[in-house]
Design brief:
- It contains 17 helices and 14 strands.
- By secondary structure, it is an alpha/beta fold.
- The chain folds into two domains: 213 residues, NAD(P)-binding Rossmann-like Domain (Rossmann fold, 3-Layer(aba) Sandwich), CATH 3.40.50; 239 residues, 3-Layer(aba) Sandwich (Rossmann fold).
- The strands form three sheets. It has a six-stranded parallel beta sheet, with helices on both faces. The chain has a six-stranded parallel beta sheet with strand order 11-10-9-12-13-14.
- α17 links the parallel β13 and β14.
- The protein binds nicotinamide-adenine-dinucleotide.
Length: 459
């Protein structure tokens, strides 16, 4: 029978909050700490603040009982055996990860350690960070045998974060001490022993009732590198298929067929071979830059990653050229925009290629009516509505009287629009799809000129 462990999670953002409620769902008692008092109050009151499936239900179930929210890290440290650091590690001006939030938390934890603690890096951090955390804690006067630092990288995807957390492909625990590895093993036991999946009320996901996701024990440094290398590799895959898509466009081939043919090779696999307007979000851009920076600091050439970034940036410019080619000139054109979030099913707009494109089209003199099911409020804080930019309440309102409709985010609901209605709503029946959500033949049958990525256009 897995045992109940007292856990503190520091940071209540996309990772910290999801981890906190999921640990409670696995049976543990959790204190979730954030230094943003406004967030703490909102979470205590049941407001999740972010759009994530299953989060409202789990928060409602556990808030103020199995998950307590507070800003007092000292109290959380005293009460808990394992302390997960899940604060931001944004990109600094030089490209490497800004670890000042992690350092601040490590020093604050150190001041309250009086019994053995496992300090867990959940944030994505460069290799050697565990050593810096250890040094910071020791410098604050804590004896070496009173704590261990462990790396337990998080692989969840926004939009499916709760299901990903509870149904992981793998759990990586980088620990250089058996005692710390055992604590982490105990925390994840409901998943690795499969007891969670036998529950009738388990959150559904990829693991069935007999599943037991693997837990990989590694050194702390290997675990840190696993996270950066995984994200960098996924970015490579996206830029690779985008470059292939461009080649398909130049040769009238179809990237969808090419991706299926490539993906049937078990060594390649079918996932992450979808071309588009480039990757974005709070992870891939900064993690690729940070990984390249780590290599540079070690005197190693990883310039392959610079090419990946270059292809990613060009993908937005190519999309803009496609719209220009379809509309002849851009100044004064009215565009309907579907999608502002960096991907579907989330309200996160950090490094969103959709927003970059909105800014690029505004700079070209276009006017834009934009719709996103969850990200409009956040976008309006960054790009306030004005004479050239408005936020509307539906996809059809965005299309209304537009010279063209642009699909920039892969929300599931954008793939099932009423095409006949779209045709009559648009001023000109032109759809330029940066996410390949539609079959070009179906668009043609509905009288729409359809331009997508790496596939022959339907005109
Ligand atoms: P986030 O910005 O949504 O949340 C970070 C939280 O930490 C904020 O609520 C902030 O107020 C809080 N915080 C900052 N300093 C603090 C302090 N001193 N004490 C207490 N709280 C503090 O960030 P996120 O998206 O959850 O990402 C967190 C980490 O996880 C990053 O390293 C990121 O790279 C990594 N990660 C993110 C994802 C993702 O999809 N978002 C996936 C895997 C890993």
């Amino acid at each position: 029978m897995p045992k109940n462990i007292q856990i503190a999670v520091v940071g209540s953002g996309y990772v910290g909050l999801v981890a906190a409620v999921c640990f409670a769902e696995m049976g543990h008692d959790v204190i979730c700490v954030d230094n943003d008092e406004r967030k703490v109050k909102a979470l205590q009151g049941g407001d999740t603040l972010i759009h994530e499936n299953y989060l409202p239900e789990l928060l409602q179930r556990y808030r103020n009982t199995k998950v307590r929210f507070m800003s007092d890290l000292a109290e959380a440290t005293r009460e808990c055996e394992a302390i997960f650091i899940a604060v931001g590690t944004p990109q600094s001006e030089t490209g490497d990860a800004d670890l000042s939030y992690v350092e601040a938390v490590a020093c604050e934890i150190a001041r309250s350690i009086t019994s053995y603690k496992v300090i867990v890096e959940k944030s994505t951090v460069p290799v050697y960070t565990n050593e810096w955390i250890r040094r910071a804690i020791e410098r604050n006067g804590v004896a070496r045998d009173l704590f261990d630092v462990v790396s337990n990288p998080e692989f969840l995807r926004e939009g499916t974060a709760v299901a990903d957390f509870l149904h992981p492909d793998r759990i990586v625990v980088g620990a250089d001490s058996e005692r710390a590895a055992a604590v982490l093993g105990g925390i994840y036991a409901p998943l690795t022993e499969g007891t969670y999946y036998q529950r009738a009320d388990a959150i559904p996901g990829s693991c069935g009732p007999t599943a037991k996701p693997p837990l990989l024990n590694t050194s702390t440094k290997s675990a840190e590198i696993i996270k950066h290398a995984s994200n960098a590799f996924l970015a490579v895959k996206i830029s690779f298929i985008n470059a292939v898509a461009n080649l398909c466009e130049a040769t009238d081939a179809n990237v969808e067929q090419v991706a299926i043919g490539m993906g049937m090779d078990a060594r390649i696999g079918p996932k992450f071979l979808r071309p588009g307007i480039g990757y974005g979000g709070s992870c891939f851009p900064k993690d690729v830059a940070a990984f390249r920076s780590v290599a540079e600091q070690l005197g190693l050439d990883f310039s392959m990653l610079s090419e990946v970034e270059k292809i990613n940036e060009n993908q937005k410019k190519r999309f803009l050229s496609k719209v220009r080619t379809a509309l002849w000139t851009l100044r004064g054109k009215k565009l309907g925009v579907l999608g502002l979030a960096f991907k579907g099913e989330t309200d996160d707009i950090r490094e969103s290629p959709a927003i970059d494109l909105v800014e690029m089209f505004l700079a070209e003199g276009c006017s834009i009516k934009a719709f996103d099911p969850a990200a409009m409020e956040r976008t309006a804080e960054r790009l306030p509505a004005g004479p050239k930019l408005s936020y509307v309440e539906s996809a059809y309102a965005a299309a209304d009287d537009a010279d063209a409709l642009l699909i920039l985010t892969d929300w599931a609901e954008f793939a099932t629009l009423d095409l006949k209605r779209l045709n009559t709503t648009l001023r000109y029946p032109i759809v330029i799809d940066g996410r390949n959500l539609y079959d070009p033949h179906v668009m043609l049958e509905n009288g729409l000129t359809y331009i997508s990525v790496g596939r022959p256009s339907a005109i």
